[in-house]
Design goal:
It is a single chain. By secondary structure, this protein is of the alpha+beta class. Helix content is 22%, strand content 32%. Strands 1-2-3-5-4 form a 5-stranded mixed beta barrel. Strand 6 (144-147) and strand 7 form a beta hairpin. The longest helix is centred in the first third of the chain and has 18 residues, at 2-19. It is globular. The termini are far apart.
């Protein structure tokens, strides 16, 4: 039992160490920044690279990337707008934006820059960012995608 508690404490400490400095924008907090700062940008790329290398999932992260490919919507179950972004590190991520809970980004084009806050899930192709929307039950941090001065959540 003690070993289990020690492992749980180490996992929790590692999670909070990775999430240090990241915040969830909400209606009671400060306004969402107009862009991701260079320090936060470098930090988020490092966090994402670490998560990919260690095959870690369920990591809340804020970042920024360039849209390199628009994909068809996923219409199985909840509908998701899907597109691939490339980070400055070169890593690519699939963005899976729930359009049943958040507004679709109709003006999104290849080459555009997007900022995001969501949950990273590992996969061998680079990973997926999801939970880029509010949680109607309020049990998960509210995520977002920012494009062309507008925030989608």
């Amino acid at each position: 039992m003690n070993r289990f508690l020690l492992i749980a404490a180490l996992v929790a400490a590692a999670y909070f160490a990775l999430a240090t400095g990241l915040r969830t924008p909400d209606s009671h907090g400060p306004a969402i920044r107009s862009e991701v700062s260079m320090d936060a940008h470098d930090s988020s790329d490092a966090i994402l690279e670490n998560a990919f290398t260690h095959r870690t999932s369920n990591v809340q992260v804020e970042g920024q990337g360039t849209v390199v490919k628009l994909l068809p919507d996923d219409t199985n179950g909840s509908r998701h707008q899907r597109f691939i972004v490339r980070l400055d590190s070169g890593r690519t991520l699939l963005m899976s934006h729930n359009i049943d809970l958040a507004k679709r980004i109709d003006t999104l084009r290849t080459g555009d820059t997007v900022a995001f806050y969501g949950e990273y899930e590992w996969n061998p192709k680079g990973g997926v960012i999801h939970w880029t929307h509010h949680d109607p039950q309020g049990r998960h941090p509210a995520g977002w995608i920012r494009h062309d001065g507008q925030t989608y959540q």
